[in-house]
Amino acid sequence: MNLFVDAFAWLADPTHLSGADGVPTRLGEHLWYTVVAVVIASVLAIPAGYLIGHTGRGRTLAVALTGGARALPTVGLVFLLALLVGIGITAPMIAFVVLAIPSVLAGAYSGFEAVDRKTVDAARAVGMTEWQIVTKVEVPLGLPLLIGGIRSATLQVVATATIATVVGAGGLGTYIFRGLRSNDYTQMLAGSIVVIALAVVLEIVFSIAQRLVVPAGVTAGRPSDTRSKALRPGAVTTTPLTKGTQ
């Protein structure tokens, strides 16, 4: 318990709240790494995911590639890239993008796949072009799952960005690894607390955003109300009487 008290006292110390090594500066660096990595991953993965979801082609390959990317050891990848491109933020940033792509890609094509095919067929029947179907039907209805994928990618990068400091970058990992080298457990815990707090805040923000983008009358990830009622235990269904059975 005393360790937690010491950690919060460390965070409240004015000497740790200003300057190039202050908590706000390191927090800003950590958040910047996360935003840049997720934005780059989104630019690369969302168009590919939408194409897969709309056409239904390439899903098997996408699943295999994303599964393989998720299996990559991020720490090992960072050190390998550092050997290739040098010390600095470039190596960890590439690793963070690779880490974020699978979740964003899965969210993009899963969002399109979750759209009721009857809705898409109805849009075609009224004369919508494929581009109109994508932009006016599939994208709005698939947005909650896409945001869920971005949310997952963001939290993964926030947790992993602590290793950026190992190859000469900054971020909140600076406190964790500096404390590890000097056996300063108070500093390690203080850095960990800020990382956890950042992750919790981002989780709440994305949870709210995910709820707000659900189109009116649509419950994300669930069948329609009418269908749900029909499938409930004890629901009574009626069969129209035909001639000769009256």
Write the layout of secondary structure elements.
Layout lengths: L1 H11 L10 H33 L3 H13 L2 H12 L4 H24 L3 H9 L4 H31 L12 H10 L2 H28 L12 H7 L15
Can you give a write-up of this model?
The chain has 246 residues and is mostly helical. The protein has one domain (21-231): MetI-like fold (Orthogonal Bundle), CATH 1.10.3720.10. It has ten helices and no strands. Helix 2 (23-55) packs antiparallel against helix 7 (130-160) and helix 3 (59-71) runs antiparallel to helix 5 (90-113). The relative contact order is 0.13. Residues 220-246 have low confidence and may be disordered.
Q: What is the fold-level CATH name, i.e. the topology?
A: MetI-like fold
CATH homologous superfamily (4th level) name? MetI-like
Estimate what percentage of residues fall within beta strands: under 5%
Range of helix content? over 70%
Largest sheet: none
Quick one: how many beta strands? Answer: 0
Spans with pLDDT under 50 lasting ≥5 residues?
220-246
Number of helices: 10
Q: Cα-atom Rg, whole angstroms?
A: 24 Å
Strand-pairing-aware structural class: mainly alpha
Q: Can you write the helix and strand succession as a string?
A: HHHHHHHHHH
CATH class category label: Mainly Alpha
What oligomeric assembly is this protein in? single chain
CATH architecture: Orthogonal Bundle
